Amino acid sequence: MSYALQRFGQMLVIVIIALLAVFSTQRLAPGGPFDGERPPPPKILENLRAYYDMDLSMPAQFYTYLFGMAGREIGDNGKPGKAHWFVVPSNAEITTLGGTNDRSTAEGVFVRQFCPWDQWLGQVIPGAREQLREQGTVFRKCGVVRGDFGLSMARRSIYVNDYVRDGLPATLKYAIPSLLFALLLGVPMGFYAAYRQNKPADFFMITIGMFGTVVPNLVMAPLLIFLFAVQLDSVFHWLFVETLEWVELGRRQRTLNWIPSGKTGGVMHYVLPTLVLGTGLLGRIVRLSRAGALEALRSNYVRTARAKGLPAHVILLRHVFKPAILPVLTYMGPVTAFILTGSLVIERAFSLPGLGRQFIAAATDRDYTLLMGTTVILLLAIILLNFIVDLLYTWLDPRIRRGGGRS
Amino acid sequence: MSTSQTPVLSIKDLFIEFETPDGAVKAVNGINLDLFKGEVLGIVGESGSGKSQSWMATLGLLAENATTSGEVTFDGENLLTLPPKALNPIRGNRIAMVFQDPMTSLNPYLTIETQMVEALRIHNKRMSKPDARKRCVEMLDRVAIPAADKRLKQFPHELSGGMRQRVMIALALLNDPEVLIADEPTTALDVTIQAEILDILLDLQRERGMAVVFITHDLGVVAEICSRVCVMYAGRLAEIGPVQDVFTDARHPYTLSLLKATPRAAQSQAAQSDDALYAIPGAPPNMRMPPPGCPFEPRCACADAHCREQVPALEPLQGSETRLKACFREGSSAALLEALVHER
Amino acid sequence: MTVLNRERNEEALAAAGEVLRSRSLTQLAIARFLRNRVAVGATLIVAVMILMATFAPLFELMTGYEMDFQDRNFYSGKAPDWDAKHYFGTDQNGRDIFVRTMFGMRISMLVALVAASVALVIGVSYGAISGLAGGLTDTIMMRILDLLISYPLTLIAVIALAYFGRNIFIVFIIIGLVEWQIMARVIRGQVISLRNSDFIEAARAAGVRPIGILVRHIVPNVTGVAIVYMTLIIPEVILVESFLGYLGLGVQEPNTSLGVLISEGANAIERKPWMTYGPGMFLVVLLLALNFVGDGLRDAFDPKDR
């Protein structure tokens, strides 16, 4: 119990440190989110900065980011037919400023929270909140602590939460299958290779391991696209459509497109990304589980098991499995890191709308809020997986289970 | 000790070679040996003499890079050529083994119960789990493990070294084997625990009348528990015979040197040479390139040119059925001893 | 009994260390490495590739196409054509991909050198400080390292490059900052085992000052390990560079790297697949060969792993 609490505290510290690091990098780096190729007029820039709290001091900005965001309604206030969703902390004040959207000059209602130690900029409209509430505005609490990452800075009408809600499933749709693919295939392969050490089967597995480890995602992705989406497709087309005339296709449809590589949804779009990420993971997992199984097979306790007259499959499953799977488990931390960096490449190669792409877009567009949001989500993913691995570890290794905590 | 019986297990012309990146290591070079029912056979030799490997080979437990030739006959079958499927009903069931290092010989990830019950049930397919458990508790009681019921649920790391070795012995004896191979079972343990373990082992041996092969480098232990002793050097047998005879009248220079090199509190003044403990000069031969003649020749005080060229065969001593030696040199122990002392 | 004096002792110790090191360890390791045919073959391949990268301008002379030269006859991406000396074809702008691959490999090699050195310096200092300090400092430093290994520093490199510009040396240094942890861990292990070893004990007993021990005994003994692990870092570093290049965050035009070339090829994979073949092949072969060299060296110096 105290162990779990300790873990939780550790996670909290890590997330806060990471947030602080990204936050201060953003504010210290030259340039900002609003100076694109055509910087907006000074007045609008000032409004935008105020709108995103960037006119506050750095500690104050971090505070408001964590514990409550400025309001987020841009322009067009009061136009009929448009639903307004105000995000207002309980102790917020409401002001009006000039148009905050560089495309709009309309007056906007501006809501923001007092930061305990910072000077308040802008003017306060007494009674504005009541007025808004009368108009049917829903107020809700906000800030990262309440699970709200605020509004994107590059595309100022989209919430970071919505971005993540779209991006996370898109990433998970190929990340989880590829991890399962690698584990379910790689561990037995590694075990089999160790069992048949120095035989042709072992050599074959080692080659696969080496291949998967060394061929980078960014080579594998275009290669598979070319093989499956271009070459095989035309072969199939030639074979079934032109030569055998088995498949009736409309004139305009030139290819079968049986494993599409482009965007748009559908399960098939995730086959190639899964394969690319999966082979990279597979290579690493084959190598690790082979090494683990080899060590276990050479151990004295496996010799004892053989001396007992146990058949090979019992030895492998009962005596070798646990110790050999432990190095694979230990490696799950770097595996998450590999998946995350891989997602940047894969989502670009296959134009998938996942977290990795959002991360890159956020970094290159200086979308501060989006970058912070995706960073936190990625961190949480890593932390969660590490936590699961720790639990599995304690479950598998009796010496930790009863000894109380790893040293 | 009955030597006229037919042997339970007999080794004929056993050779073992290990393939290594730096060349082949000839670990065992032609061993001929019979193991008789109900005897305790001591195998003595320094590390690397092939004493463990030759018995591992009988159970097919050698490392992957080993090649064997020769015959190990047990119940009419050659164990060396049996496929694992046919070997499995024998090992752990009719021939069992206890290993040197109790700390690593039990699987740390499984409970004692799992490891014992599986050994029983793999050979007695119809035995139920509760029955198997009961048998395990009995066996643990037999090797003097207190609170056996509780111990079954524990993991190896929760037991002391002595406890683990008792578990190993219990494990080996679960299926009432005809042959027990004990590979330095007490080397890793404290002296007091050593004695207890040896007592348990001997008791069980007498009770069941099984043949025990006791591999060790401790001559004191051999003298205490063995009926016959077999001395090995550089993958060959040097001398075989009843313990009493060999220890009082060693006929191979190596055996004699070994005996002289062993510190013994109760040793007679005469045998204990006046000053320091005797040490055999030189080092064992490189098993990648064994010498062409007698392997002990480079370190032997009594060697001559003949020894350097030809390997002496293991032959019975004149006038004795039970004793064999592999040395060209004839003569009594005293004569050999003189040569040794003279050389120093 | 002879009176021990510090200088003589130090000399004797150094001489003993020298003999041990030069005879037994290094020579044995080299012999072991030379026996490993795969590793020796890989070393030759790496050597050839280093030569090709170093003399990349020679290929400009050989083919007659400069790196940025746009072949009007061949304009807009043609498949490989040996008669026209476009061995890997041309890109959309009619630039020769073979020559560009050679120059891209040059950048990759440069990264291997500079970034791996950065990683080496950081890793060795971190590991040495942690190992020498011991106690609480060591525990904390190792705990931090444990955490860092599970977190993708590459992502931080992406942020840093996006924010602080893409000057080639910034790229190199940031990549070096990503890949130092394994080095730190290995060096720490080595330093600790040295610190507890008998000959350091002897030197300390003889009154050699800590600085003397560090310079005379620890540094020379750590160097070999550091070099072995540097060869293992190099492919990682090249991979990170091509990763950043692929994302458009690495070196910028007119410079190019293998990653950038693959990225350009990947964009046109459906119609101009040859744009990926050349650079992709060179990257994979380079990584493969470097991996074999690194593994071979590690096995040669640390045979217990096998």
What does this entry look like structurally?
The complex is a heterotrimer of chains A (407), B (344) and C (306). Chain A has 407 residues and is an all-alpha fold. Chain A folds into 2 domains: 41-152, no CATH class; 161-403, MetI-like fold (Orthogonal Bundle). In chain A, 61% of the residues lie in helices and 3% in strands. Chain A contains 14 helices and 2 strands, in the order αααββααααααααααα. Chain A has a two-stranded antiparallel sheet. In chain A, α5 packs antiparallel against α6, α7 (217-243) crosses α11 and α9 (300-307) runs antiparallel to α10 (312-330). With 344 residues, chain B is α/β, with parallel strands linked by helices. Among the domains of chain B are: 109-169, no CATH class; 248-341, no CATH class. In chain B, 34% of the residues lie in helices and 22% in strands. Chain B contains 13 helices and 12 strands. In chain B, the strands form 2 sheets. Chain B has an 8-stranded mixed beta sheet with strand order 6-7-8-3-9-10-12-11, with helices on both faces. In chain B, strands 2-1-4-5 form a 4-stranded antiparallel beta sheet, covered by helices on one side. In chain B, β9 and β10 form a beta hairpin. The longest helix of chain C is centred in the middle third of the chain and has 37 residues, at 97-133. Chain C has helices at residues 6-35, 37-54, 56-63, 97-133, 135-150, 153-164, 168-178, 181-195, 198-205, 210-246, 258-267, 274-301. Chain C has 306 residues and is an all-alpha fold. Chain C contains 12 helices and no strands. In chain C, α4 (97-133) packs across α11.
Task: Quickly list its features.
heterotrimer, A: 407 residues, MetI-like fold, 2 domains, two-stranded antiparallel ribbon, C: 306 residues, mainly alpha
Shape of chain B: globular
Which ranges of chain B are low-confidence, i.e. pLDDT below 50, for 5 or more consecutive residues? 266-270
| First and last CA, distance of chain B | 38 Å
Strand order in space, largest sheet of chain B: 6-7-8-3-9-10-12-11
- Give the rounded overall mean pLDDT of chain B: 82
How many strand segments of chain B?
A: 12
Beta strand % of chain C = under 5%
Measured as a percent range, the helix fraction of chain C is over 70%
- Strand coverage percent of chain B: 15-25%
Q: List the total number of helices of chain C.
A: 12
Which stretches of chain C are poorly predicted, pLDDT < 50 over at least 5 residues? Answer: 1-6, 16-23
What is the N-to-C order of secondary-structure elements of chain B (H for helix, E for strand)? EEEHEEHEHHHHHEHEHEEHHHEEH
Q: Indicate the radius of gyration of chain C in whole angstroms.
A: 24 Å
SSE ordering of chain C: HHHHHHHHHHHH
Mean pLDDT of chain C: 79
Please state the CA-atom Rg of chain B, rounded to the nearest Å: 21 Å
Rounded to the nearest angstrom, the distance between the terminal CA atoms of chain C is 47 Å
Largest sheet report of chain B: 8 strands, mixed
Largest sheet of chain C: none
- As an assembly, this protein is heterotrimer
Number of DSSP E strands of chain C: 0
